[in-house]
Write a sequence for this structure.
């Protein structure tokens, strides 16, 4: 391992470009003046990345247009060499000057590919326009024969597809119940290791007086309970007096990048891959951040790119707090909790949001309990006090609600199948399917195919969730996979009982009598049975709510995630 | 302003190349970058280019081996695309564009887009021989309604295919349709590529954009002209076209091409051993089927 500890830099003052924190200046101050708030944050984010990758240099930047099918391209290797098919039409060209201090260091031979990209004088960026937000988020279909068969089955027989998926996921089961071997980063650079041709070069020190900062890795700037919490941590970091440096690593049009919690943060929405520009062991982008800012800590929320580099950060800044926050053990191999366990030697504190996940971390993965913090997310959308059971008025039609993204994980098709069964029983019920997402169009097709157009009211996220919960008599959580859903806590706070699939930590709040198997067919059948029973028995409905309310109180009596994190970051 | 990357592919024609570069420097619409692809020339081209100073930004790409015109154009177009230019303008090393050639191509292209829509995939020039006559080998294939733009007062003729002698190609077309098949090496690469581009909308030949093709002998070519000296070139032509007919059009077109080929060889009284060799190349078209490469699939 080599260190690069020369203190030759002067501290960099963070500028503003298009009203955003910036590490560069435009050669022409009028550049980008026509862009919307979202487009500005995306563009400045991409340019901050390139300013860090080309310290002190002037870059000639081409900007290209695109469609809903082309997510922003801001940091991937094609933004250096222009070799992307997305760059069909150039719409603007301008120059920027990086104001990052260069590092006084000889490149390692392993950095040749990265240097070749960085040395290019031109950059090629695509910032999708706000018009793309009017469509369903585009997710590229799985290519090939298997993909096309899967698509057909999924649309014609949604539950059959779920069955097949459950079957195929059985192969991951062992991984969920056995401890994973934590990563030994240094050994990967030894002969025979994955990175035997690379070397670890730790980051140089930050200059005296450098701005204090915290690096926060997020999944993306899109809607979701996990993201609400992630944004909250950005706000708390800023309130604690640090510059939040927020990195995301999933392609998206990033509709939520304009959230007020992100104001004043240095945002870098990654587009992948960055394989060539970021040399293992050298980590050009992170080392530029570490030598420019006085990084006091790292927070990871569902960002695999950052998980992969935590060990390098820990080697560069021994002793700084590195915390992550995980919510769900995914059936497809463990998901981010598994990433957390793999990175356990670098993570100082594992935050989890449910007792079940805390138990998984300690009992299955063997992480010392003192390094696992369980703090529920309750406070974000729910005011836990003063909840009262919402009794059904005599003239009210019994209303069954679903609140969540139209995504595979949330299984809206199971909700529709349940509604279909209830209708066949001849019950006069009203259904509300609240949420939008990449499966919106598909879900509407299924509703139409089941002949439920008149029975299911569709609501998008434009309608407040509180309105739906204010009309509901039971909330149905039909998910294939969850942590502990915020909507469960919200429903209980609104006096609405919850019936749920037995996934993640739902059982921490929902009693066994209101839990159903997660397998699609069984879930639809059992959900229909339980909802039918509750529709007929107001006493049972209230009893269920009281049990859930008690469990929720017990859970929320624990220190909330926000309170814990505020105290944690306050000590950095 | 519309930005254009010039692409010239050269192999052992240094004297002509000097005139090509000078002609490009003299354009009234300057190219943003000129990419000269040196196909491993052995006549001092590399040394000349290494010390050359030009009035337009010049990037010389020296290939490690001669990749043929097809390989050179594929590499040059990839470079032009990667430079961020709105169009690439491709030509051989014996093509001398007149000073207004590029400017007229851009105007003609824009006019065609205004009339036909944004799918117009290329604009090519009129190619003259050094004596001012039409160049026999470089005449584009017109569409059935070739005069549609002429009657609208434009100086454009609609075409489906042309040779790589002064062709302006917008970057979207490269993104969508990919690069020419470098595997073709020589012959039929331009025909195949421009036919690929005109799948949805024809290109145009801009009648007031003129280049001079200094090709020595102003003769068209057909298979009756095969001799021992030119066999190598015809061999590529037969293999490439056979492959294209079979894999992009269908079996009957492949057979029909074979029939045409052998009728021509018979009429030209080409010796039997050469016919046998070309028969082999025709059969080779069955297994030879390169895949389209796009800019992002090329080596970084």
């Amino acid at each position: 391992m080599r260190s690069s500890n020369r203190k030759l830099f002067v501290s960099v003052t963070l500028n503003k470009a298009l009203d955003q924190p910036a590490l560069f200046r435009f050669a022409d101050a009028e550049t980008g003046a026509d862009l919307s708030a979202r487009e500005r944050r995306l563009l400045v984010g991409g340019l901050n990345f390139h300013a860090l990758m080309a310290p002190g240099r002037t870059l000639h930047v081409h900007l290209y247009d695109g469609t809903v099918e082309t997510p922003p391209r801001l940091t991937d290797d094609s933004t250096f060499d222009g070799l992307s098919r997305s760059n069909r039409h150039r719409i603007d060209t301008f120059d920027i000057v990086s104001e990052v201090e260069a590092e006084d260091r000889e490149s390692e031979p392993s950095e040749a590919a990265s240097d070749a990209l960085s040395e290019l004088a031109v950059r090629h960026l695509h910032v999708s326009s706000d018009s793309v937000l009017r469509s369903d988020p585009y997710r590229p279909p799985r290519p090939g024969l298997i993909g096309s068969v899967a698509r057909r089955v999924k649309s014609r027989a949604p539950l059959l597809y779920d069955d097949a998926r459950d079957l195929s996921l059985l192969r991951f089961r062992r991984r969920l119940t056995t401890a994973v071997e934590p990563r030994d980063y240094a050994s990967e650079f030894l002969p025979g290791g994955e990175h035997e041709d690379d070397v670890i070069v730790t980051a140089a020190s930050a200059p005296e007086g450098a701005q204090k900062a915290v690096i926060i890795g997020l999944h993306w700037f899109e809607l979701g309970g996990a993201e609400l919490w992630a944004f909250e941590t950005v706000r708390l970091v800023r309130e604690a007096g640090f510059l939040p440096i927020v990195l995301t690593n999933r392609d998206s049009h990033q509709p939520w990048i304009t959230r007020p919690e992100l104001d004043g943060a240095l945002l870098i929405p990654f587009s992948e891959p960055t394989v060539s520009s970021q040399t293992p062991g050298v980590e050009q982008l992170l080392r530029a951040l570490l030598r420019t800012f006085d990084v006091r800590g790292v927070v990871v929320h569902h960002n695999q790119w950052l998980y992969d580099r935590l060990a390098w950060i820990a080697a560069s800044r021994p002793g700084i707090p590195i915390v992550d926050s995980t919510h769900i053990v995914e059936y497809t191999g463990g998901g981010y909790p598994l990433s957390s366990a793999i990175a356990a030697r670098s993570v100082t504190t594992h935050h989890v949001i449910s007792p079940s996940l805390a138990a998984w971390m300690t009992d299955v993965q063997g992480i010392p309990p003192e390094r696992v913090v369980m703090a529920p997310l309750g406070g974000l959308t729910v005011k836990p006090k003063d909840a009262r059971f919402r009794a059904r008025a005599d003239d009210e039609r019994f209303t069954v609600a679903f609140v969540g993204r139209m995504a595979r994980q949330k299984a809206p098709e199971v909700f529709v199948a349940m509604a279909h069964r209830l209708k066949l029983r001849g019950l006069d019920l009203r259904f509300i399917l609240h949420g939008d997402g990449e499966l919106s169009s598909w879900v509407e097709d299924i509703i139409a195919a089941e002949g439920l157009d008149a029975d299911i009211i569709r609501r998008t996220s434009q309608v407040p969730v509180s309105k739906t919960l204010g009309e509901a008599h039971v909330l149905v959580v039909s998910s294939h996979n969850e942590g502990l859903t915020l909507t469960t806590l919200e429903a209980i706070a609104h006096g609405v009982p919850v019936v749920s699939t037995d996934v993640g930590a739902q059982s921490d709040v929902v009693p066994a009598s209101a839990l159903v198997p997660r397998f699609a067919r069984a879930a639809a059948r059992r959900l229909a049975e339980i909802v039918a029973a509750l529709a007929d028995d107001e006493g049972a409905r209230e009893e269920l709510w009281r049990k859930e309310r008690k469990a929720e109180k017990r859970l929320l009596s624990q220190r909330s995630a926000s309170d814990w994190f505020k105290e944690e970051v306050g000590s950095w | 302003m519309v930005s254009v990357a010039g692409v010239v592919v050269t192999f052992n024609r240094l004297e002509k190349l000097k005139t090509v570069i000078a002609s490009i420097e003299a354009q009234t619409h300057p190219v943003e970058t000129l990419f000269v692809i040196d196909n491993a020339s052995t006549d001092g081209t590399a040394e000349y280019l290494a010390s050359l100073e030009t009035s337009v930004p010049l990037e010389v790409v020296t290939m490690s081996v001669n990749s043929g015109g097809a390989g050179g154009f594929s590499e040059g177009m990839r470079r032009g695309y990667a430079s961020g230019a709105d169009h690439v303008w491709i030509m051989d090393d014996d093509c001398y564009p007149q000073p207004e050639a590029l400017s007229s191509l851009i105007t003609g292209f824009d006019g065609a887009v205004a009339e036909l829509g944004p799918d117009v995939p290329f604009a090519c020039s009129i190619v003259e021989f050094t004596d001012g006559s039409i160049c026999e080998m470089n005449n584009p294939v017109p569409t059935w309604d070739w005069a549609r733009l002429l009657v609208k007062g434009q100086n454009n003729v609609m075409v489906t295919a042309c040779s790589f002698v002064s062709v302006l190609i917008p970057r979207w077309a490269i993104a969508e349709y990919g690069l020419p098949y470098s595997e073709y090496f020589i012959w039929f690469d331009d025909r195949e590529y421009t036919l690929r581009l005109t799948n949805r909308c024809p290109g145009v030949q801009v009648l007031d954009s003129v280049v001079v093709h200094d090709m020595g002998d102003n003769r068209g070519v057909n298979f009756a002209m095969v001799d021992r000296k030119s066999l190598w070139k015809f061999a590529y032509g037969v293999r490439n076209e056979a492959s294209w007919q079979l894999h992009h059009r269908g079996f009957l077109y492949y057979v029909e091409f074979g029939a045409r080929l052998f009728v021509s060889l018979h009429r030209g009284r080409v010796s039997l051993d050469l016919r046998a060799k070309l028969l082999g190349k025709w059969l080779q078209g069955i297994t030879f089927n390169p895949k389209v490469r796009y800019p992002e699939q090329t080596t970084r």
Q: What stands out?
A: Chain B is about 40% helix and 20% strand. The longest helix of chain B spans residues 231-249.
